[in-house]
């Protein structure tokens, strides 16, 4: 397991990989080989509880700011670098389907663990109307999604240079509900805009309802989970044109940003 899986030989390389493996075990805890749920209330690998915030006004949108520690963030980044997807600077996006690299499987395990064990902070989620919250909304992922196998079987890694973003979209309908986005390197603002009519049409690029536009700050190491309305009835976008990356009244200094999106493909009809 782990984010380090060098392919080249050499004592140095092996040492590095071994160190990375040990660091990961300390940082992430050993992964479970059990067939059943990988975590329980007594899981000894749990050394801290991530805090989840729901996003006011958007059902099914959850943010975990402290998902990855700094050390974990750099291990994840180096695992992505080792893939060599972006080494010649000619690509800024890579996709994988089916069997994911080991580090992505580990990341998916951490997403599940965080959703299982994380604590919902109603204070941090302030602004959301607690009366509107039903029982399902106290878990960042509905249980039927949380325990599906595999949790994810598709990944996209995106690298954004300053000024680059992603235009408003709803993820394709060929992906199931329950999407995770992990942010690395630098912060950005992601905006959510409600889809007109809310019929969840594939790849909506169309009209929006009035001015419902909700920003969330994606800091490095954070995790976003989208399900239900957030996944189907809201578009998300990252606009890094000058003037759009404002947080608490201040323009965010733009640097390179890397993200990993994890999704699950819908079963194809036989
Ligand atoms: O890079 C991100 O944070 C979002 C990526 C995304 O929305 C997508 O690939 O569908
Ligand atoms: Fe997306």
Automatic annotation (TrEMBL):
* InterPro entries in the cross-refs: AlkB-like, AlkB-like_sf, ALKBH7-like, Oxoglu/Fe-dep_dioxygenase_dom
UniProt GO BP: DNA damage response; fatty acid metabolic process
Report domain Fe2OG dioxygenase positions.
151-266
Q: Where is the composition biased (Acidic residues)?
A: 27-36
Region of interest (Disordered), residue spans? 1-44
Name one cellular component (GO) term.
Answer: mitochondrial matrix
List the Pfam families: 2OG-FeII_Oxy_2 (PF13532)
Family note: Belongs to the alkB family.
- Protein name per Swiss-Prot or TrEMBL: Alkylated DNA repair protein ALKBH8 homolog isoform X1
> What species is this protein from?
Elaeis guineensis var. tenera (Oil palm)
